[in-house]
User: Fold these one by one.
Assistant:
Number 1:
Amino acid sequence: MTDKIQVSGSLQNRLMVTLITGAAILGIILFFIVRGYAAQIAQNGQDDILEASLSSILDAAVIHDGTVEVDFPYASLSMLDTKLDDRVFYSIHSDGILISGYEDLPISSKINSEISTFRTIKYKNTTARVASANRILIGEKERIIISVSIAQTQDALSRTLNTISKNVALFGSGFFILVTFLSYWATATTISPLMRLASSVTKRGPQDLRPFEKEVPSEMFPLVTSLNKLMNRLDLSLKQSEDFIAEAAHRVRTPLATVRSYADATLQRVSKKENRDALRSMVRAIDEASRAASQLLDHAMITFRSDKLQKELINLNTLVQNLIINFEPIANMKDIELKFIQISSVEINGDFVLIQNAIRNLIDNALKYSPHDGMITITLGANSGSCLEIQDQGPGFPPEELDKLTLRFTRGKNSNGIVGSGLGLTIVQDVVNAHNGKLKLSNHEIGGACAILSF
Amino acid sequence: MRNFIVLILMLFTKALTAAEWEDEKVFSIGTETKTLRILSSTDTIFFEPIIESFIKNNKDIKIEYFVTGTASLDKIFRKSPEKYDLIISSAMDLQLKLVNDGFAKKINQLTHPSWAKWRQSLFAFTIEPAAIVLNKKAFENREIPTTRQDLIKELRSRPTFFKDRIGTYDVRKSGLGYLFATQDARTSETFWRLMEVMGGLGTKLYCCSGDMIDDLVSGKIVVAYNVLGSYAEARKKQSNEIEIILPADFPTNMMRTAMVSNSTTNLKVSEKFMQHLLNNQTSQKTDQTHALPPLILKPGQQTIILEPALMTYLDKLKRQTFIKEWERAIIQ
């Protein structure tokens, strides 16, 4: 059955992959946003200092005796000291003519505004940030535009950025690992009701077709509802078919008994050998049919009772003793000795009718397969446990079929000529299952079959 | 005729190059394959021990040592940076500007305290005070001034005695003198008062500490302001005629710095020499007469900081203003 289902992917894996991929994408986006933001803040910091330096130089500009003097304070450049000793360049222009500082630095074009402009330029083989601004000086006769630009390299800034990037990357990786664990946990939690349902379906006995009533997440509700409907239908059709079989068996049994009594009576009357042989075969066939019918009835009864066990305390010693007494006449006919060894007194909690039926089937089987003058040993309570061992001296179970014998209508290869329906061991197995017990079939070393029942 | 012109030209260039240097010395033991050219403002006698201990262990290296003033050193190097491997100067501001302008090579493998280096390119190797040096005879039976104020008071009390007998750097010619003066002016107004008093008494102006100390020993002058303490100490060991005062109001400490030229063709050797120099100067050493002070910061001692602000007074406009004011004070 399971071989035919095609497995494509796993819900949990799919969910995890989705979550982790999402986290990775989020992480990467976050990394770039934080880095960009940090870069902007760091750049703003540098710009602020450059602007402060710039305005301190501009403020120092005066017209003195018709010439421009810019006696800027020591602090103007001192404030540009960084941990990585960034290089500093500046230029002072008067009406566009360089009067001090470095050549080729760009100057602000906003003549009528003292607002600083910032730009990043290539200067002296390195990248520098330039702040520039203008100021108009009004003298007695003249009007002079002073343009100051101040530039600083970005060594310290890039180091800060690298540190931030490294930390953000580290933080992001940690976050990612955490998310991986979280998503594993989340998917496991999400998927667990499904797993629980699956395992409770698996754990159910073959006859257990009750609907599932435990709480399930809303997403699983349709699935469980359909499952319950399916089980309900299955249960119904199973019951119908079993009812049908039981009914059929019941209907067949009575006419069979009638036919058998007529056949017996006829056997008394005919004397011709071939007729008597034919009648005997007939009687045997009728026996077989009626036995099958009664076992079918038994089986139906057991299936029915398995669902609602009527448990009581059963003394196995008494039960087995009574069964042996019942079987004594048949055993005597075949000169078989029934030996009952009671090691201890065993009491179990179970359905009396079912247990009796199961043990009867086992003893019946033993009697059927035992040779004349054989012995059947029934041991109760060995190893101080509640187990019953029934052993005969017959041909034993065919070893290659040991695990199939308990299936319905399966009979051993060596059952030719022996009356049987193939339901005996099935009944035993069903009873044992209903009581959570075990049935172990094996062959004895010195020959003979051995069945061990334990509850 | 042509030969004559060539000869004239040769003589001319020879004279020209000779005139560039205050001193010029080649350290060689004749087995060398490489030449290290050092451009320096430090007198040969102070640097000799360091060079000699270097070539003792590096027999394949010849060292050419050129000495000139701090200001001209800056000009010479800027004109032809490829001619020199190592640049040594006491003018911290000029050196820092050279590095800022991209003339120096980064030497990443050197470990050096962060306060004593800039951009891993400029390395300080001495701490030297600017001192007031006095001729002892001139202050016999008088209290020795310990601060600039004391000195002003002393000069004012004996104007005729000190007339034309005071010396200081000509800040227009000496880079180190300019550095000392600007740092003094930055720290205290006392500097300007002192300059005015000195100017009133007819101060002699010098290019170098050595000349100033010479005149001080001979008695030509009796007070010298902002002399290199290390040079004075060395001279004091020879003749006990001078008194060295490190002003108690605010001391000015300068650091001599070295850097490797960005266009050096001898990077390996230059780095090796730099390492040798720093090792030599950061360890306590035996007492020599002519030894550079080590780079050891005494508790509470402060030096001029290696920072971009050193370029402030190198600004053309600032320099013009400063020199103008200085001239007004000292050349009256």
Number 2:
Amino acid sequence: MTYDPDVPIIDRIIAGEQSVYAVLVNRYKSYAYTIAYKIVQNRVEAEEVAQDAFIKAYHNLKSFQRESKFSTWLYRIVFNTAISHRRKSRPDFQSIETTRLVQNHEGEDRVERSDKRRFLEAAMNRLNQADRTALTMFYLEEFSLEEIAEVTGMQANTVKVRIHRARQRLADELKTILKSEALSL
Amino acid sequence: MKQLMQKDMDELARYIDGELSEKDRKNFEDRLNIDKMLQEKFASVMELHEMLKSQHLLSPSKNFTEKVMDNLDHYSSPTASFSIRNGLLLLTGVLVAGLLALYLAGSGVFDGPVTIMGPVDSMLSQQLLQRQLPAVTFNGKILVNAIVLLNLVLAWIVLDRTILRPWFSRRVSHG
């Protein structure tokens, strides 16, 4: 088991120092928010989800087994909270046609056509939530494959394959989007 | 037109992530030099790879931490957030099942002894079963009464968790 620098802080919180929890919130809020955003795809909702996850984690801190890092445990809560939030708020399925319409509409109204980042986001929306989260976490370079597996609930040995294949699908999607953009110019 | 196999795609991914052995890397690069389709695929995945690498962490609002800290004491557990509508539906179901069982027991359906597995007579059963199963006879009325009792206990728990407790806690918090 690796040493988790959060453990002394967690002990203080459990002992009754509630205000110390702000240290953990500050430390992990950006990652929690990014993971939530990748799933719910909306900034306001992602913020709500990340906040809920931190509050849930605080109230379940005593049940944290310390076998994994606190951050991994927290991100798992964020992931599950975001998934159930998304299930409640809207259906998971989004047709390619719908995604294209949204993307084109936004492209015409607000975004420069050359903004590939925007297209990347549109292409990423077509991946499923687990693949999208796994790919994001992989490229944030902060997470090992084992941690990604723990957060997304996948088997560690399948995470890598899924990341590879999600990336290929994403490359194809991106190519299609860029091609259609080029044609519409 | 030649299509790339999944095996090629997996190898391409491992090449990009630097996971191939020296020998496999060399072989792959040799193929990459001559295979136009692989070159095209490599370029598109590599472009995406660079884009993904340049992704940044998103930042939540400035008062994110304050909001979390302010709401730490306003947490409702999933059991407490069970909706009253669902609770009422569940309670109705439990009560209907209990009353139905009571009605059946009261009308004498279960008065005689019930045998759930008697001596096996049919040809089909004789063929399928090597050994005869023992007959189990029991008093159906006792069983139904036990089920009714369990239903009442369950109904009480549901009533308590979904209606009474939230109602009382709301009264306490508002009063």
